[in-house]
Amino acid sequence: MLKVDNLHVHYGVIHAIKGVSFEVNEGEIVTLIGSNGAGKTTILKAISQLLEKSDGDITFLDKSLSDYKAHDVVHIGVSHVPEGRHVFPDLTVLENLEMGAYYRKDKTKIREDLYKVFYRFPRLKERVSQIAGTLSGGEQQMLAIGRALMSHPKILLLDEPSMGLAPILVKEIFDIIKEINAAGTTILLVEQNANQALHISDKAYVLETGNITLSGPSKELLNDEKVKAAYLSA
Amino acid sequence: MELFIRQLINGLNTGSIYALVAIGYTMVYGIIKLINFAHGEIMMFGAYFAFLFAFSLSFQLPFILVIVLSMFFAALLGILIERVAYKKLRKAPRISALITAIGMSLFLQHLAQLIFGATPYVMKQLVDTTPVTIFNFDISRLTLLTIGLSIFFMILLSLFVYKTKPGKAMRAVSQDKEAAVLMGINVDNIISLTFAIGSALGALGGIFYAMTYSQIYPTMGVLPGLKAFIAAVFGGIGSIGGAMIGGYLIGIIETMTKAYISSKWVDVIVFGLLIVILLFKPSGILGKNRKEKV
Ligand SMILES: Nc1ncnc2c1ncn2[C@@H]1O[C@H](COP(=O)(O)OP(=O)(O)OP(=O)(O)O)[C@@H](O)[C@H]1O
Ligand SMILES: [Mg+2]
Question: Which of A9, A13, A41 has most ligand 1 atoms within 8 Å of its beta carbon, as the pocket-test mutant?
């Protein structure tokens, strides 16, 4: 479904992504794990065209994503939940969700998706008219995910959704990700929390300073000695 | 008391003009964090457009059409200015954009001088000026029209910004551009829309200003532009409601100073106020006390 082939990204002279290839099939949860500065965010930004790649191919449903402007990527079913949530702080919860459906015109379907989001995140429903900037970190993460779901995506790109959350909330968020996937949305999950990410995903890639050093079914990586030592020690 | 009420009405008249112009400063600042110093020149061009539509056609356009057409062309001018001069500088250091805006302001003044000449045009009245009597006060129709139309457009703007999808998108872009892009919002178009609306309202302010003082000339936008900018800072730059309140307050402060102190003191007091705000409450009346991210 999503195929990244020999991707290179530069920030000026800094070569941040050095020939990364991976694939996400329909219905899967695929995770990219790696420590700070490995290049996880950079890859997601290159997919959603927020950053220009310097070489390689990114194809989604056989379309080359670099033919699209960043604001058109969501039209073809790619929805990106950025690192640090990035909810619109002065808009209400409801307005944030409306922005998620910005490009859509099908009012009745949008309404259905809104109910689905409220069903999945009852806490957002209780807070529809609250200003998003006043939500707690966990609520903001839910809003960011809910907002992304309002575009009715085929694939959801999640950048460290567990960042900065208390352990119970982390579990809740990962459960929700599994549910979203079970309901039919493919997921590319970027995480530092390798343990949780490997537990819910089908396939995993380990990223180190711009290169993929290891990949395989998540179950196997969970038992891999190198992965255990580097990412699961905590 | 009678003098006071009369001055208050005058203050609301001038304040309406400042409020209309201040909205443009604040909206543009809100969306691209630029003080658009060329905004006073949009005012000026708006006034020239109105003059052309009112007096140089072979037939007489109704006043409301003169206004709407002038606002429309000012909106186009605003879009053009942004696309030509500011767009490339969005990621540049802010000082570069600021200097460009000052350059644009001077350029437009000289352009107006080239096109229209340096001699002021006399703005004959576009509306019936016989006063209306309300509660024993004679109020000029122009004053009523200025206050009434300004408030009408401000209500329209508020409805747009808070109730419509493009209005919400505009607020979303001003809060987080990257997230807005991920929502599928075309940020370039929203920025153009912001310039269009700000410029149209600025032109309306310029038309009322020209009708109040009966003159149009290439540098006419400088002083009211600066005062409207102060109004925007006073109200809290970036806040539309703040620009409206700031505009009316500056208008009232100005007329009251004229009436009770001396007209010589007007500019001293208004510009002094800017310094006081910047020293003690730089975020203004409705602005947020957010730390600026550099
Ligand atoms: N705007 C930028 N300019 C220059 N270098 C950058 C920029 N953004 C990221 N980098 C560099 O690119 C590399 C990859 O960064 P990236 O943000 O993709 O890492 P990450 O894996 O998401 O890390 P984290 O887990 O901390 O979010 C880092 O070395 C970083 O310093
Ligand atoms: Mg990151």
Answer: A41
- CB distance from B189 to chain A under 8 Å? no
Interface confidence (ipTM) of the complex? 0.94
Of A20, A40, A188, which is best to mutate to test ligand 1, by the most ligand atoms within 8 angstroms of its C-beta? A40
pLDDT at position B289: 58
Residue with tokens 């003191």: B265
Asked if the structure places residue B56 within a domain, the reply is yes
pTM, entire model: 0.92
A208 Cβ below 6 A of ligand 1? no
CA A170 to chain B, closest CA, distance in angstroms equals: 23
How far is B214 from A133, CA to CA, in rounded Å? 48
Give me the domains of chain A, ranges plus CATH numbers. Answer: 2-84+150-231 (3.40.50.300)
* Alpha carbon distance B88, B100 (integer Å): 11
Sign of CA dihedral B71, B76, B77, B79: positive
Task: Tell me if B249 is assigned to some domain.
Answer: no
**Token pair of B44, please?**
């000026």
Structure tokens at B293: 């991210």
Give the range of the structural domain holding residue B21, as residue numbers without chain letter. Answer: 15-221
Q: Supply φ then ψ for residue A10, to 5 degrees.
A: -115, 145
- Averaged pLDDT, B219-238: 94
Strand partners, A205: A32, A215
| Residue B230 belongs to some domain of the structure | no
Ligand 1 close to Cβ of residue A34 (< 6 A): yes
Strand partners, A10: A15
C-beta of residue B15 within 8 angstroms of C-beta of residue B247: yes
Q: Which DSSP helix (H) or strand (E) runs through A157?
A: strand A155-159
Convert the pLDDT of each residue in B120-164 to its tens digit: 999 888 887 788 888 888 888 889 999 999 999 999 999 999 999
